[in-house]
Amino acid sequence: MNKTSTEVVATKNMTFRRSKTRISDKIIPFILGICALLSVVTTIGIVYTLLQEAIVFFREVPVWSFLTGTKWSPILPPKEFGVLPLLGGTLLITGIAIVFAVPIGLACAIYLNEYAPARVREVIKPILEVLAGIPTIVYGYFALETVTPFLQKFFPSMGIFNALSAGIVVGIMVLPMISSLSEDAMRAVPKTLRNGAYALGATRFEVALKIVLPAALSGVVSSFVLAFSRAIGETMIVTVAAGATPQLTMNPLDSIQTMTAYIVQVSMGDVPRGTIEYGTIFAVGLTLFVITFLLNILAQWVARRFREEY
């Protein structure tokens, strides 16, 4: 009798677990699908909002004039709507940031992966990743109050607002992205490749540059492209430190204005809704969205093109 009761209880418990598993198998995929659908709907909503206002703007300003004009003065007369000064300022800041961040970030990744002892890696890597959590407004005032006065000792003609200090600090901001993603890509390289190179007499430096780095090239290059995309979209650092002078220049000591900084400037509430000046916010935002979208596609293509599977 006791054995029969035990078997009945065990059967009931097994049946309950199976029914619970079947319910969870139906509910969890549904919840995950809703989350995925939510991200898609959000992206579609953003694109729709940008297009809705940008189309109204481009009815009054030709797209070609917008993309090729070299003067940007949408608020003060004579009004000009050439986005090249904003695009040039954005690319100048991004170029300085990438030139600063790529060699340092890659060197950090190689050191952490190939040279640093485990205890040192456990300390340095979290410190680097803390940089990614600092608010960008803090970075902006760091560039304005610390980096710019330091650089003025070497460049006396440099103004308070300039592209050089803003670009360097943007590079500091994206540095953790490059070092962390590159280090993760290098760590995924099998140790057998390293051991084989060491067995052939290669030095640690040769293994790092000629074996590990080429094997992890897809992840490393993807980190560069993602950092480039992140630097293009940076707002507060360039708003605080780079200035608000839309001019087409390659001199990093000059004050410039980026696309994101212009959006912040015009979004303060002084421009009436529905005006052509208001429409410039969405035209510039759409341009920025297209650039970052293309960069993300490039990052995915690079990852597929140079991926090594072991």
Automatic annotation (TrEMBL):
It comes from the Bacteria. It is found in: Cell membrane; Membrane. Gene3D superfamilies: MetI-like. Residues 87-299 form the ABC transmembrane type-1 domain. SUPFAM superfamilies: MetI-like (SSF161098). It holds the Pfam family BPD_transp_1. The chain crosses the membrane at residues 27-51, 86-111, 123-142, 154-178, 207-228, 278-299. Keywords: Cell membrane, Membrane, Phosphate transport, Transmembrane, Transmembrane helix, Transport. It is a multi-pass membrane protein. Its main location: membrane. PANTHER family: PHOSPHATE TRANSPORT SYSTEM PERMEASE, PHOSPHATE TRANSPORT SYSTEM PERMEASE PROTEIN. Part of the binding-protein-dependent transport system for phosphate; probably responsible for the translocation of the substrate across the membrane. Belongs to the binding-protein-dependent transport system permease family. CysTW subfamily. This is Phosphate transport system permease protein. The gene is pstC.
